[in-house]
Structures are given as structure tokens and as C-alpha cells.
Amino acid sequence: MRVGIPRTLSFFTLYPLWKPFFEGLGVDVVVSPESNKALLDEGVKETVNDACVPIKLFHGHVAALKNKVDILFMPRLVSLDGKHTLCPKFLGLPDMVRCSISGLPEIIDSRLDLKKGKMELYRFLYRIGKRFTDNRIKIIRAIWRAKHNFSHYRKLLLQGLTPQEAFDCLDTGHEPQSGEDTASIRLAVLGYPYSLYDNYISVGLLEKLKSYGISVVTPEMVPERELRRMSKNLPKNLFWYYSNRVVWSCMYFLQKQSVDGVVHVTAFGCGPDAMTNKLVELETKYNTRKIPFLTVTIDEHTGEAGVATRVEAFVDLIRRKKGMM
Amino acid sequence: MKISFPYMGTSNIVAGYLLENLGHEVIHPPVPSKRTLSLGVQHAPEFACLPFKIVLGTYLEVVEMGAEVLITSGGCGPCRAGYYGEMHKRILHDLGYPVEMIVMEPPLVEPVDFFKKLHRLVKPKGYFNLIGVVRVAWAKMKALDDLERTLHELRPLVFAKKQLNRIYDEGLEAIRRANSVKEVVAARNDTLEAMRSLPVDHDYEPLRIGLIGEIYVVLEPFANHDIERILGEMGAYVHRSIFMANWLLDNVLAHGEKDVRAAAVPFLNQMVGGHGQNSVGEVVRYAAKGYDGVIQLAPFTCIPEIVAKSIMPAVSKAKGIPVMTLFLDEQTGQAGIETRLEAFLDLLRQRRRKREAS
After folding, report:
1. Which fold would CATH assign to domain A185-321?
2. Which chain A residue is nearest to residue B314, measuring alpha carbons?
């Protein structure tokens, strides 16, 4: 039995939870290949044209998996923190995929809604486990291992690892080497994990910044406690899980860590980001230190040269501001 | 305190009446125009939806006219519209307009907050006055909806279409002026009678089209290029899925519309915010009622309607009803819409002929 997990959207947040869980149940986990042009083209062909590029890419990943697995795993993620929902496109995702792509294998689209209480995650995993085995102890052991692996993963992210580096650490069991942070410029790169950490869709933005000798901080590196504290700064929070984390972490970086600039990576036509982007922009504008702010919009036509030019100009601006040029 | 509110279809008549008679000085928002839109587009985030831009433009216009307090509706997501009050406030403050924003959150979700704000609005003239004012406002809302329903019903059949529009416009004015339930009902009955007295083509059987989608672009003619009039004058009967009075009853004062959502469940088993799930459910219902086709209206980048649109082909196929989606934004031109509507109606006519022949 093989279960397929698309390598995008919630993958960068939740994969370390799913993988040990399914393996504990004795099921093979197949992950779609890293995003590439063929995959995106396939997704663009299948998806409704008004959707944003991450959703199109998701369809591409599903199309790449559909003939290789027995079951596709794309849970309907409604709420991951018990208060806010995810973007409506996440809510309708299983239905969108089912109506757009033909010849799909069986789909697990169980609803994960932590608004129902903290135990809901375990009930959710137990319900899925029941589909594969009747052995309760096996399911409970798998859930326990998954939970353990997942909290380890979160710790690694807080240490400043990218999800891919953290996956490697979890697989090999090595502890990460903590390098000395000597960079003179620190940038906050904000955005959703599926845009930031997918090197194809972000045209290698994070790598590029690091190659300029810049230290990069992202929303995944902010502890939950700090995010919760920041959430009290807004009279009304946004409705979406990932968007809220972007806004809160922006406030955290501006208040608690002296970042020199803020880059917001957003997908063309992203609904929640129309709000998020403006909030972040105003947040940097009214900061007493007048932090430079750059929006990078990505879509299926984004070219590496275009993004590189803009980012280089932005970095030059910061260097000049700091008197380094 | 000069108070104003967003403009949406005929609801401005009701909102204006309510606020004026609660004892406030009201700045009546102007009918949205090209200027409104370009003001909004200039200052709104690029990917905010058309309603956000038009409403922001309206705010900028009423602020120029001296409005100090803006009153609008809130929401609890996941549709973006619930956050628009807060976002508009920030943008207006950023532009240097120190307006105050009263965002009315849904009473079922945040009752304390709702009644606090309500109390502020009602205070000048007291609660006894409120009962009378609400009664008249409700009568106005129902009368306006009745006029519109009749207008849509008669438009494809009547020979003198311009005269029909004129009678309707006069009816709106009469209802705007009315000051008691009696006057509202009289204005409504007079207008309906005048409309029905126009000669109609009894032999003509118009195509029947359901209109679904996001509430603002469905209700505001400026946003949808008056699509109901275009369709009516092309000879199609338009049934709109959303009317203000029903919508308020179902969504704000009670959790209604369960049957529409139930109809959507086989295709979209999740509330996705806004009118996403309703849109899917309405198509199922229009198909069951034997409509010829459905037109879905949505602002560009509207998240719930994008989800609905991607499911539409499956619904359309399963239920055997053609669905056309129009995404509207500031670039949309009327000629483009007319061309697409003509083609869609041609397709529906052909389909009907084929069905009648077999």
C-alpha cells in the first residue's frame, strides 16, 4: 500500500507529522518530486485559471502522483490553531482537485478542524489509522511517534533551519551544526512556507540572499509564545492561519529583532495577501526606524533574472542606508 | 457627527432612511461612478477585490463631502470582506483622513460588541423610536425587492422597455420619500400596478437564467455593468439568487439557507466563506427548477468564488445546466460582457430548440 503526499502547500508544515504516522501503520509514503517546469505546466493546464500559482502547483503535484500511488492523502485542513481557519482554497481543495483532475485514486480528505478541541488532532489521526489497520496499539504507537517527530521538527525550525535541512536532520539523525552568525545585514523574508521554501516557485530567493552574505529570518523561526503575544497588537486579527503568522512574525521581527529590511513574497492574485501585504507594508512604514520594504510577487511566469534584479537593488539600498557603500 | 455608509444597490435607500431617522446627520453616498472606482483603485491593494475598491472610492468621496463616521458591516471570515472595515480604516488613516469606523459585527457571533455599537447609534432618539424606524425600513426593503423582482419578470416581455425602466426609477424615488409603512406600501402598489399595466408579448417565452455569485457584484449594477438590464433587454428572464431582505434574514439574524448548502454538499462539502458554497448549491437548485442556464458573477481574486468556479464544470455536467462565470474587475468593459452574454444566450437558445425538437 502506497500513500501519496504532494510536496507543496501544507507539506512544509506537516510532513514530519504524516510521514512517521503512515510508516508506523506499515504504509509506504510516496512524495511527489520537487517542483519543476513540467509539473507546473501540468498544474496550470488542469486548474481553474483564476487560482493562485501555489494551487496550480498543487494540482501538478497531484497529477504527478496519481498513477504512482494507491491512496492520495490531502486532508481538508480547516483550522490548525483552534482559532483561525486556513485560506478558503485550502478548505475547498479536495473538492477542487476532484473536479479538475480525472483518473484519481482513492483520496483521504478527512477534515482536520482543531476548533473542535485539542484532542481533535488525535481523533483525526485515529480515524485515518482505522482505514489501514484494526490494531489499536499500532495506531496509537504511530500517533505517538508522529507527534514526537513533529515536535522535534518544530524545534529544528526554530533553530533557523529550512524545512529541507530539517527533514535531512530528522532522516539522518544528525544534530545541526550551529554556525556563527556573522552577517552584517539581517532580512526578514515573510511569506507562506509553500512559496518561501519551494525553490522552484520562489526562484531560489532564500539561497540567493544567503549567497549575498545576508542572514535571513522567516516566520517559521518565531516561537509560538512570541506569535501569541504579538497577536494582541491588532484590534482584529486576520482570519487565516498562515497570513496571521506572517503579520505577527513581521511585528516580532520589527520589535524584538533588529532586522534591516522586510521582504514579502506573495503569489499573484493571492486573496489573503491583499490584506496581509498592506498590513505588513503599513507596519514597516510606521515603525520608528523606517524599515525598507519590498514585495516580490511570484506567478507561473516569474523569471529568475527579474527577481534577482529587484532583490539586488533592494540589498544595495539597505547597504547604502547602513553606510556600507 | 456626520455619518455615512457604503453604497450597494438599492440598499442605500434603506440605510440612509434608518440613519437619518435615528437622529444622525447623514452624508448620502453618491452613486458609484468611474471617479469612485479610480479613487478606490489608486489607494487599494492591487489584489483586493472589486467591492473593496469601489467601497474605498465611495469612502474617499464621502470624506470629501465631510463625513466623519463611516458605518459598515464586519464578518468573521474566511471571506476577506469581514476584514474590509479594519483595512479601509487603516488606509484612510494612512492617507490622512481621521475618520472613525463603526464596524457592525454579526450579532450572532459577537452579540455584546453589536449591541454596544447599536446603542451608540440609537441613543440620540431612544429605543422607542427605533421600533418605528425599523418597521418602516423593513417595509422599504421588502418593497424594493418586490419592485426589482417584478422588473426582472416583466423586462423580457414588455414592448416599451425604456418606459418600464422609467416607472421603476420613479418607484424607487417614491419609496425613498415615503415616511410611514402605509406610504411605502402605497408607493409599492402604485408602481407595481403601473408596471403591470404595460402591454406585454404573451406568446414570447423568455430564456430563464439564474444569477448567482458574490453579493456585492450581484447587487450593485455599477460593479456588474447592469447585467440584469442587459440580459433583460436581450430578452432573457433573470432570477437573482440574492435579495437584501432574504439575505439579512438568513445570514445575519439567523443561520438560514441550510437547504441551499445541503444541495451543494455532494460537490463541495465545506463552508468556504462568502457565497462560495451557496453558488454551488444554487446551481443545483436552478437545474432542478428547469432553468436554461446560470451566470456566476464574481470579483477578480475572490477566493470563495474561485473555489466554486473550479467545481462548476462538475456540477454543470452532472446536472445538465450550462454555467458561465464572469470575473469582474476595474478593467472589465461593458462591450466584452455584452459579447459573452450574447454568445451564451445563443447557446442556450440552440439548446432549447434541440430539446424541443427531440
Report:
1. Rossmann fold (3.40.50)
2. A99
